[in-house]
Amino acid sequence: MNELAVANEQLKKDIELKEKVEQSRKELLSNVSHELKTPISLIGGYAEGLKLNINKDDKDFYCDVIMDETKKMNKLVLSLLDLAQVEAGYEAFLQAILTK
């Protein structure tokens, strides 16, 4: 009976932890969506400016902005991929614990 109570308590903690991770994941997705919205808008706006055949000085500036924003978005996406790998490992870990 004691072993069952201990296992039950551990299961409750595991479920609580999983719920916290899920909430954090939802918040992260919301934040990432917000963080990607601005650079995408900037890139679109500056690309439109380039299409309008702006002068040489402005063209260089527009290209620099597009490249900077692209680098920021790439860094964010790479961070998300790293997080996905960590989360996949964590999910496998939890699954192993729960199936014991």
UniProtKB/TrEMBL annotation:
Transmembrane segments: none
Catalytic reaction annotation: ATP + protein L-histidine = ADP + protein N-phospho-L-histidine
Presence of keyword Transit peptide: no
Pfam family, one: HisKA
UniProt entry keywords in alphabetical sequence: Kinase, Phosphoprotein, Transferase, Two-component regulatory system
InterPro entries the UniProt entry points to: BphY/WalK/GraS-like (IPR050351), HisK_dim/P_dom (IPR003661), HisK_dim/P_sf (IPR036097)
GO MF assignments: kinase activity
Enzyme Commission number(s): 2.7.13.3
Domain Signal transduction histidine kinase dimerisation/phosphoacceptor: 24-89
PANTHER family, sorted: PHOSPHATE REGULON SENSOR PROTEIN PHOR (PTHR45453)
UniProt protein name: histidine kinase
Source species taxonomy: Bacteria, Bacillati, Bacillota, Bacilli, Bacillales
